Fold:
Amino acid sequence: MPHYFDPEPSAASDRRSVTLALPDLSLELATDRGVFSRTAIDPGTKLLLLEGPPPPAEGDVLDLGCGYGPIALTLARRSPAATIWAVDVNRRALALVEDNAASAGIDNVRPATPDDVPPEVRFAAIWSNPPVRVGKEQVHAMLRAWLRRLEPEGAACLVVHKHLGADSLARWLAGEGFATHRLRSRMGYRLLEARRETTA
Ligand SMILES: C[S@@+](CC[C@H](N)C(=O)[O-])C[C@H]1O[C@@H](n2cnc3c(N)ncnc32)[C@H](O)[C@@H]1O
Structure:
């Protein structure tokens, strides 16, 4: 069965576009078959973009699981001096991010597979609508690997639906040593902020 997280989607390409309308910016984004939420901006993603904290003005910032790029491109517009890593396993999604950045005139987004990100890069922030449908163990492994690459003062901002395990994910993050707060809750979506626990 095809999934939005397949590295090479088998569905024939059929591009269309969606509008991302936010109070501070508007983007026309190309989408395609075989990528997540291709007919409309996902409501969880919209909540993250409306209610997430201001992103760091500079440094490296990660959109983990970027899809066609609504989060990465918004971060890039809001923080033009930052480098936004748009990471996904789905190569069709990465091609869309590249095209969407070019058509919006955005030049501070770096589309990349997970293995393409140099290991020494550390992130001032990580934003993600994570691929919870890949399964709990894989999501945990993915978050464990990337969140340990946060700078000491960095924070991760994640949106997850309560029916897809938002509350147990928050407990798991706390167990992994990340102080985790619910910033917002709307329509069942939880907006979580996770920061490394500091020992006094
Ligand atoms: C819920 S979708 C969110 C897509 C996009 N950020 C949005 O908001 O529309 C999660 C994305 O994570 C990607 N993904 C799945 N496994 C991944 C992994 N191991 N590393 C990075 N991205 C992954 C999927 O291909 C998918 O595009």
Remarks:
- The helical segments are 43-51, 70-78, 91-104, 136-147, 166-175.
- The beta strands are 16-21, 26-31, 58-64, 81-87, 109-112, 123-128, 150-161, 178-186, 189-196.
- Residues 4-5, 36-37, 42, 45, 64-67, 70-71, 87-90, 93, 114, 129, 131, 134, 142 surround S-adenosylmethionine (CB under 6 Å).
